[in-house]
Amino acid sequence: MTSLVAYGAYVPYFRLRRSAIATVLGGRAAGGTRAVASYDEDSTTLGVEAARATLAAVPEARGSVRSLLFATATPPYLDKTNAAAIHAALGLAPEAMAVDMAGAVRSGAGALHLASGSAEDTLVVLADVRTGLPGSADERDGGDAGAAFLFSARPELPPLAEVIAHASVTAEILDRRRTPDSPVSTTSEERFTEQVYTRLADAAFDDALERAQLRAEQLDHLAVAGLHQRALRSVAGRLSARTGKAADGSADGLAGTVGNPGTAQPGLLLADALDRAEPGRTIALVVIGDGVSVLVLRTCAALAGRRAAVPAAAPAAAGSDRLSYGDYLTWRGFLDRQPAARPKPQPPAAAPSLRRAGWKYGFVASRCTDCGTRQLPPARVCAGCRTIDKMTEERLDGTPATVVTYTVDHLGFTPHPPLILAVIEFDGGGRFRCELTDAAEEEVHAGMRVTMSFRRLLTADGVHNYFWKARPVR
Q1: Per-residue CA distances from 12 to 78, 95, 312, 422 (Å)
Q2: Which of 33, 212, 341, 399 could form a cystine bridge with 15, CB 3.0-4.6 A?
């Protein structure tokens, strides 16, 4: 039987205070913050970070994953598989099929549905970078995040939760849409579609309970996700009254600190429910959008000892809220600023990127089998003993490191100055010069502990240049 065996979530470091929007544009100031993907992050990098957290709990499963489903409504590429970059960054087996389930928020619910019924080890990655026109509700209430879930039927991987039922109702509803050439969504009057979604939610919820052979009051946790705010509140209220449980995602908490991360919201709410649930409890996940989908899970005994290393609510409550509204608009492309007088960046070439994919995407170094010297980047000739072709590969993306020395560059170009470059030394040996991200100038010091993070260095001629940066361990 296929079960959920690992999960993880990722929330970016930066926060935008909702009151900062009103300070610039006027109007009523809303409370709380929303999570903001940095200038060097997109839905692919968010997905990589969430998937890394998931596989860190079951490293033995990395080689057994046979399907990778990446769901997002904000894909960095069209006409190219974004999941392929995630596949490369995770170092999955070549025979693992990586596909995108992109275009709509409901894709996330579909990916979870398919994975829960797969006979092969399937990794589901959900991520979104949500935005809207300046001053819009989408901008204010949106958020950026990623979540990942590994499903497997292998007996050596203890199940954390079993999917005991799923039900779905589909309807063609023109309440939200976005054309491929538009950066923002268009929405229709919510009052009519609120009634439609309420009716569909009742039908899907009743069907799921019947399949699970449960009564509403037997559910222990209820999570309701979706972008339709009126329907979200209405459905959450109705189902809460039936179950006697408060619905996650409908009030403060993650919504007040992270915002609504669209495709990733069901995953973030499910991860948070798993963080809090005791073994033997039932969880109902309701997703609203172009219909209603319901997933019912029962937690297992192994959950108590194998929860995510970092709870979903922990990074959600942390982060820096010093991001200015001007920087946010610049990062999202709504505010053009005078660029630095620097040469135009060049995109990475296809051939060398493919030849060095293990290093570029997976951060795979080499270690000499004769003297044990670690090489970054990997090399054929050992820098220590000069032997040739006596190397073993070694992934370092999860190995902590320490800042040896650093430079704060106020002239180098970066969308979030100053540019901070550091020489870091990995535990077990090996030094590397790289850029620090998610770090303020005043907090950087020699001896600071850092870890690697998958980022987008730049975009040139329509090509995203993905590689690794270091960020502080928090």
Answers
A1: 24, 31, 12, 21
A2: 33
Residue pair 402/450 in contact (Cβ under 8 Å)? The answer is: yes
Residue 423, pLDDT score: 98
Look at residue 250 in the predicted model and tell me its pLDDT: 45
User: d(Cα 232, Cα 249) in Å, to the nearest integer?
Assistant: 9
Cα–Cα distance for residue pair 68/362, rounded to 1 Å:
16
Quote the pTM value: 0.95
Helix or strand (DSSP H, E) at 465: strand 463-472
For the chain, the straight-line distance linking the first and the last C-alpha, in angstroms and rounded, comes to 37
Residues (pLDDT < 50) of the chain are 250-252
Residue 253 pLDDT: 66
Domains in the chain, ordered, with CATH?
3-331 (3.40.47.10), 350-472 (no CATH)
Burial 305-338 (b: 16+ CB within 10 A, else e): ebbbebbbbebbeebeeebebebbbbbbeeeeee
Cα–Cα distance measured from residue 207 to residue 169, given in angstroms and rounded to the nearest whole number: 10
Instruction: Report the mean per-residue pLDDT for the chain.
Output: 93
Q: Which amino acid is at 303?
A: L
Contact between 131 and 138 under an 8 Å Cβ cutoff? The reply is yes
Residues 152/121, Cβ–Cβ less than 8 Å: yes
Taking Cα atoms as reference points, which of 299, 317, 432, 363 lies closest to residue 52? Answer: 363
Q: How far apart are CA 450 and CA 384, in angstroms?
A: 25
The backbone torsions φ and ψ at residue 46, rounded to the nearest 5 degrees and listed phi first, read: -60, -40
Q: What is the DSSP letter of 142?
A: B
Which position has the token pair 């009052």?
Answer: 191
Cα–Cα distance for residue pair 466/331, rounded to 1 Å: 17
What is the arrangement of strands in the sheet containing 374-375, beginning at the earlier edge strand? 374-375, 364-368, 391-395
Query: What is the pLDDT, as a whole number, of residue 315?
Result: 78
Q: Smallest Cα–Cα separation from 34: which of 142, 133, 184?
A: 142
CB 393 within 8 A of CB 386: no
